[in-house]
Structures are given as C-alpha cells and as structure tokens.
Amino acid sequence: MDYKIKIKTDTQFLDLFKKIEKSKVNIPTHVSECFSVKMLDLEAFKWFSENLKKIDGPPLHTLITEESIVLPSPPIVESSPEYKEKMRKLEQRLKNKEYDAMTKNVDFRRVRLPEDTISYQIKQINRQLIAVLQFVISTAAGFLFGFLGIELMLSTTFDLGFKLLLGIICALIIALAEIYFLAKKLAEDFEPLDISGKVHQD
C-alpha cells in the first residue's frame, strides 16, 4: 500500500505543465507519468514547483486546494476469529452483569450474589484482620528470636546494638516471607470471571 501524500492535478496544473513542455525543459519520464494519471507524488510536485518559476507561473499555493491533497489512508486490518469470539463473550458478560445489577433488587426469585450478603462481608473483614494479626505476631516473634533467642542459644552476651541488628534482620526475613505467602494466597483466591455464560432472557 502507498503511504505517500499525493497532489491531484486539475486543469490549471495541466495547462501550466503544457507551458513547461513548450519551454523545452527536460521532463523526466516519472513526471510525465504522474501528469498522465493526474496524480503527483512529492518528487513530481517538487519538479513542478521548481520549473513553475521558470515560466513565471502563479504562486504555487494558489493552485493547491483542500480537495487536491490526497492523504494516505491507514490499512484496514480484519479481526481474527479468535478476537471476535473473545469480544462476543465479553459483551455477553457485560450484559449479564448489567442484567444482574438491574434485577437483583426486584426479582426475589433469583439468588443473590454471595458478595451482596452481610455474612460474606464480615467473613472477608475477619480474614483480613486475621492476616494482619498473623503478620504482626510473626514479625514480632522473629524480632524476639533475633534479639533474645540467639543470645540464649549461644549462652553468651551481645551488645544492645548488635542484638537490635539481629532482631531487625530476623523480623525482616519473616516479614518478607509473610508478604510472599500472603500474595500467593490472594492470587489463589482470585477467580477469573466466567465470560462463557449466556445472556439472560426475559
């Protein structure tokens, strides 16, 4: 596909080109072909602009109109069947979601979604509180192990600064491990929405 800007010639362009021909100027074959199809590319247009001055022609900008400029159009890419199928399923999923939102308060025969119940919300809050509490306790236990446990295990005495350093290192290691397992658990709990369902029919 040709992505170059082209200039469409009209009678003014053609008349001026004939005058240039009569002035016995050497005309490249490419330029002649462009004028024969009444469509100039940038190379032919540049040649025309340079030779227009030799015959004392009108200013070039007076010859160009909005209709004479032909811009390249982007290629039209046909969507693949897989993409069309995914879009169809996504549209069905969105329609199902809108239908659920509109009818859950008026159609009491339909079962409410689990996340709409208070018990579900309370369970989620409890799970989050337990996870935070577990993180705090594990990190504190790691700090105490580094601060006191290592000293007791080795039956020796460390400086306060060194004990603090050991406690912080142990707490940091346990905190990173807790964050890793917490993120892994959240990833396992995440369930992608099913987009293969059918649209509800009234």
From TrEMBL:
Q: Which UniProt keyword terms apply here?
A: Endoplasmic reticulum, Membrane, Transmembrane, Transmembrane helix
- List the GO cellular component terms: endoplasmic reticulum membrane
Protein's recorded name: Transmembrane protein
Task: State the compartments where it is located.
Answer: Endoplasmic reticulum membrane
Tell whether Membrane is among the UniProt keywords. Answer: yes
- Gene this protein is translated from: TMEM199
Q: What Pfam families does its record include?
A: Vma12
Tell me where on the tree of life, at the top rank, the source sits.
Eukaryota
Q: Where are the transmembrane segments?
A: 129-150, 162-183
Q: Does the keyword DNA damage apply?
A: no
Q: Which GO terms describe its biological process?
A: vacuolar proton-transporting V-type ATPase complex assembly
Topology with regard to the membrane? Multi-pass membrane protein
Organism equals Schizaphis graminum (Green bug aphid)
Q: What is its main location?
A: endoplasmic reticulum
